[in-house]
Amino acid sequence: MRVLRTVYPEVCDAAHGDEHMLVGAPPRALSNVAARSGVNGDPANAGGVVLWLGASAEDVRLVAVLSPVDGLITGEHAHRWLEEGVRVYVESEYEALRVAGALGWPIDELQVRASKAPRSV
Asked: Is residue 120 part of a domain?
């Protein structure tokens, strides 16, 4: 998932004290190298890849959902993510329109983080 590469450092920078970033369900450590490979989505969070901050897998808080599937988003997701301050990241403006519509949120509540494809030399 391209958006994970761009969000990874941003989420890590938001960690406090002994917190570190965990990914997925159940939460597990993700090294910088692993951030470059694929990660499965979480069915409990509309199929999006979930990012957590915490001191351990047992003590985490959900901080971000990456590219949730608009057709799987429910009102419960929208309410919970908004209430908990969870950031929702997407890869494109087009995806932002679809996801914002499904959430019932203004589009500017979503974070668009597309990574640029490497230029050939």
From this structure: no
Nearest CA among 41, 110, 53, 114 for reference residue 78: 110
C-alpha angle 26/30/36, rounded to 5°? 120
| Within-domain flag for 114 | no
Helix 75-84 crosses helix 93-103 at what angle (to 10 degrees)? 100
For residue 119, is it within any domain?
A: no
Helical H segments across the chain, by residue range: 2-13, 75-84, 93-103
Domain span at 39: 2-109
Domains of the chain: total: 1
Given this model, what pLDDT does residue 30 score? 67
50: which residues sit within 8 A by CB, 6+ positions away?
23, 24, 25, 27, 42, 62, 64, 65, 66
Distance CA 120, CA 44 (A): 39
- The residues pairing with 59 across neighbouring beta strands, listed in sequence order, are 56
Residue-wise pLDDT for 78-90, tens only, equals: 999 999 999 999 9
pLDDT of 34 higher than 70: no
